[in-house]
Amino acid sequence: MNAVYKEIESVTFPSDLEKISFVETLIDEVCSAQNIHEDFYGNILIAVTEGVNNAIVHGNREDKSKNVHLSIQISEPSIKFIIEDEGIGFAFNNLPDPTAPENIEKESGRGVFLMKALADTVEFENQGRRIVLTFLLS
After folding, report:
1. Exposed (0-12), middle (13-18) or buried (19+): which is 12, by Cβ within 10 Å?
2. How many whole angstroms separate alpha carbon 63 and alpha carbon 94?
3. Average pLDDT, stretch 122-133?
4. Distance between CA 133 and CA 12 in Å, rounded?
5. DSSP-derived secondary structure for 88-106
6. Which pLDDT tens digit goes with each residue over 35-46?
7. Per-residue model confidence as pLDDT tens digits over 2-35
8. Which residues touch 10 (CB under 8 Å, ≥6 apart)?
9. What are 41-84's pLDDT values in tens digits?
10. Contact criterion met (CB below 8 Å) for 54 and 3
11. Quick check: 96 pLDDT over 70?
12. CA–CA gap between residue 131 and residue 112 (Å, rounded)
């Protein structure tokens, strides 16, 4: 049986890295309002900000005329964060392993790896332009 999710927040903002602090504040407010235990907060904060960062930098190529859409849905016992950019998408099934010796020293390439490690499920939709991060809260 599929859970019915209720949208509790939806925002759209330009592809500007300065908006990451806005996203962090939004996550703080949502987690507080939903009484999300601090054990889950850190994973949510890091995974969602990584997803938004990727949408801004890789998806929209920091083009401030393009937007990032973030919506938050809740259904006991989980919360979903849906991040969508206006880029061309990416080959999400063909990413290099950031833990491979040849990639360890690289400064980028860990975002999807972190999201997959911290969220309970990560789904890529719309050719990778939309990422759904689900966190189980129990």
Report:
1. exposed
2. 25
3. 96
4. 17
5. ----TTS---TTSGGGTT-
6. 999 989 999 999
7. 678 899 999 999 999 999 999 999 999 999 999 9
8. 69, 70, 71, 72
9. 999 999 999 999 999 999 999 999 999 999 999 998 899 999 99
10. no
11. no
12. 10
Whether domain 6-136 has CATH 2.60.120.40: the reply is no
Using CA atoms, how far apart are residues 98 and 63, in angstroms rounded to an integer? 26
Q: Supply 9's token pair.
A: 């927040």
The letter for the amino acid at 82 is: I
> What's the confidence (pLDDT) of residue 133?
98
Residue whose token pair is 């309970």: 120
Domain ranges of the chain: 6-136
Amino acid at 70: L
Both tokens assigned to 5: 């999710």
Element at 112 (helix H, strand E): helix 111-118
